[in-house]
Amino acid sequence: MAGQLSPTRRTRQIDDALAAIEARFGPGVVRRLRDIPPRDPTDRAIPSGSLGLDLATGLGGLPRGHVTELLGAESSGKTALLYAALAANQRAGGIVALIDAEGTVDAGALLACGVDLADLLLAHPASAPDALLMLTILAHCQALDALGLVSIPALRDLPAGRARGSLHGELAALDAARLLTRGLRVLAVALKDSPTAVILTNDLLPPMPDRPAFRSPGGLALRHHAALRVAVAPLALLPDGSGGYRALRVGLTIAKHKLGTPGGTAEIEVRLGGALDHAAEILRLGRAVGLVESGSTGLVWGAITLGRDEARARRALHTDADLARALHDAIRAAHGLPVAA
After folding, report:
1. How many CB atoms lie within 10 A of CB 245?
2. How far are the Cα atoms of 67, 136, 151, 183, 224 from residue 256, in angstroms, in the given order?
3. For the packed helices 321-334 and 278-289, what is the interaxial angle rounded to 10 degrees?
4. Looking at the domain covering 39-274, what would its CATH class be?
5. For residues 268 and 52, is the Cβ–Cβ distance under 8 A?
């Protein structure tokens, strides 16, 4: 029995067992927790591109070292949210990459969302195994802050391709769900201790008889591996006051949260040009927390008059980036979240 061994012999036998495991499965596969450096609690998440979603997660954004799934119907705003996350991380000095499995990524849409095209790493995989292998290699490099994939349903339409490397040895006959299961299993290992947050977009399938109403491509693999699942749903078209529409209001619901409490909600406005209306979101959240109030001169933040009405206040925040950033940081601080230096 282990209790009959001397402490020295027990330690030696444990060390021998760990050495055998590392020789068989590779270094670092098993470690004592005291040997793992603690992660900076103020840097455990990346900006999501939406202040409301940052607050709803309770982390201040999307978790590093984990997979986030943006799940919604076609034209629900999930791709705009992904682009906004890439742009927000670039503004914070981060390095971002995007894997275009659909072949539909448009430079104009990226620019509209604020993405700096000169510093964006954009990959175009030729097959589904290639897409997952690229995702794993980029996640494993430990240099990226945000890594996006558009989209999970597109993996079904890409050819299975000839397997390359050791990641997928016999995938020609496997369907997309089994392909995704293997790919995500390897990706989970690559993300261990990684500062990269992986963001995948996925479609919400229409209900069918005798099937669950909440269905998505990829089988159960993505539901299992995603630490955060955000359901994206259009709510209403917002009029512009002149007979047209200025934006689409979109609801965000945290359907799964391994690192916190699920059920958090947020709302964003996606302008008809494809970009998120950050000014409208900041203004709404500022009023909710009591920072922005209605005064005799209109909407005010402390001694600063933002505008006589909401439309003018939105325009002021659109045109004055420093003012918008200051209010953004004040809202984060009011919720107890760290503010970027």
Report:
1. 13
2. 11, 23, 19, 21, 10
3. 40
4. alpha beta
5. yes
Query: Does 39-274 match 285-334 in CATH topology?
Result: no
Cα end-to-end distance, the chain, whole Å: 56
Report the distance separating Cα 308 and Cα 262, nearest Å: 37
pLDDT tens-digit series, residues 83-113: 999 999 999 999 999 999 999 999 999 999 9
Within the chain, where are the H helices? 7-25, 51-57, 78-91, 107-112, 128-140, 152-157, 176-190, 221-225, 278-289, 310-319, 321-334
The torsion angle over the Cα atoms of residues 305, 308, 311 and 317, rounded to 10 degrees, is -10
Phi then psi dihedrals of residue 217, to 5 deg: -65, 160
pLDDT one-digit tens code per residue, 116-166: 999 999 999 998 899 999 999 999 999 999 999 999 988 877 776 444 444
Measured between alpha carbons, how far is 235 from 230 in angstroms, rounded to an integer? 15
- Report phi then psi at 144, rounded to 5: -95, 150
Given a contact cutoff of 8 angstroms between Cβ atoms, the answer to whether 187 and 136 are in contact is yes
Domain borders along the chain are 39-274, 285-334
CA dihedral 196, 40, 221, 30 (to 10 degrees): 100
Nearest to 252 by CA among 92, 78, 22: 78
Class of domain 285-334: alpha beta
Is the link from the previous residue into 194 a cis peptide, with omega within 30 of 0? no
